[in-house]
Amino acid sequence: MTAAVITYAFCESIAVLGLVLYFLGGRPTDFYVFMLISLFFFSVYFPKYGWLEEWIKAGLNLRAGYANFPNQDKLRRVRDRQEPNW
User: Fold this and answer.
1) Which of 6, 11, 60, 67 could form a disulfide with 41 if both were Cys (CB 3.0 to 4.6 A apart)?
2) Which tens digit of pLDDT belongs to each residue from 39-79?
């Protein structure tokens, strides 16, 4: 979760820097270019639905005690913070 917040902050900071350049230089193209770059990075790092659905199901299965979910050991380590979840 923390890694996602930091990633999104970096993606947004690109657009903010473009806004600052616009305020300092007065050229709107600076802001538009940086905003497009920021939107590109948001689209690249946006969570994928399949991964999110798998993660939610795994969390529910781990709590319920089911042992038939793929990548269960990895998800347990992520849940228990034994390895980063990025």
Assistant:
1) 11
2) 998 888 877 667 667 767 766 655 555 555 566 666 666 66
- The domains of the chain are located at 1-46, 48-86
What would the two tokens of residue 23 be?
């305020």
Euclidean distance between CA atoms 62 and 56, whole angstroms: 10
Per residue in 9-29, is it b (16+ CB within 10 Å) or e — as a string? eebeebbeebeebbeeeeeee
pTM beyond 0.90: the answer is: no
The tokens of 41 are what?
Answer: 């990075």
